[in-house]
Amino acid sequence: MADMRAFQDAVTNWATGGPDRPARDLAEILGVRTAVLLEGLSDLAAVEALAARRDRDLAAEGVCVVPMGGAMNVGRYAGLLGPPGLGLRLTGLCDEGEQGFYERGLTRAKAPLQDIYVCTADLEDELIRALGTTGVEEILRAEGDFRAWQTFQRQPAQHGRPRHQQVRRFLGTEKGRKIRYGRLLVEALAPDRTPAPLDGLLASL
Predict the structure, then answer these.
(1) Which terminus of the chain has a smaller tally of CB atoms within 10 A, N or C?
(2) Which of 57, 62, 68, 49 is nearest to 89 (CA)?
(3) What are phi and psi of 196, to 5 degrees?
(4) What is the tens place of the pLDDT at every residue in 164-173?
């Protein structure tokens, strides 16, 4: 039976030059109504984790969460999924520095801009501030990464940098780490400490 992951894969294939028919057919079969445009897989992990915490089945609600492989691809995905293409409602989450890509991409696709939620710096920055560096360190310890974190802190490039910035940089130093911690940091949040952009995005779906 077709599922939302199959639609996500069909969209990615379409966006990279493949045929449009599989995505169009699956959108109809699955009743897709909304596409959430995300920069990458760590954002996807965080959004899916928060949806699970709130007992939301986004796929059953007709919501497809799409990691685009970078904000520079938003114009392509917005054109395929928004008014010029499948006619889905578009929403998304982006880093502050990438907001311009989203605004230009959605404007070209004639899609509203109000449902784009912007993180200060990036989503990792938002989550670290919500948990506090001590809270993040507790997760690093539980995951067996605390010794690597201490070694990282001793690097000359980290001397004098605020701990918040050190933690943010550490999460990006190993392939797959940001994805894994995107989920773990969200799961550790107190219910009232969800970063505003992430909370707003889920509430809008």
Answers:
(1) N
(2) 62
(3) -55, -45
(4) 999 999 999 9
Side-chain-facing half-sphere of 110: CA atoms under 13 Å: 5
92, 115 contact by CB (below 8 A): yes
| Structure tokens given for 79 | 């054109």
Closest CA to 180 of 171, 191, 188, 189: 171
State both tokens at 34: 């909304």
- Residue 110's nearest CA partner among 132, 138, 141, 89 is 89
Straight-line distance from the first to the last Cα atom of the chain, in angstroms, rounded to the nearest whole number? 24
Which CA distances in Å does 58 have to 3, 50, 121? 12, 11, 26
Token readout for 165 is: 């910035």
Please give the DSSP secondary-structure letter assigned to residue 119. E
Could you tell me if 107 and 74 are in contact, meaning their C-beta atoms sit under 8 angstroms apart? Answer: no
pLDDT of 2: 67
CA dihedral defined by 116, 122, 125, 129, rounded to 10 degrees?
Answer: -10
Secondary structure (DSSP) of 54-77: TT--TTTTTEEEEE-SSGGGHHHH
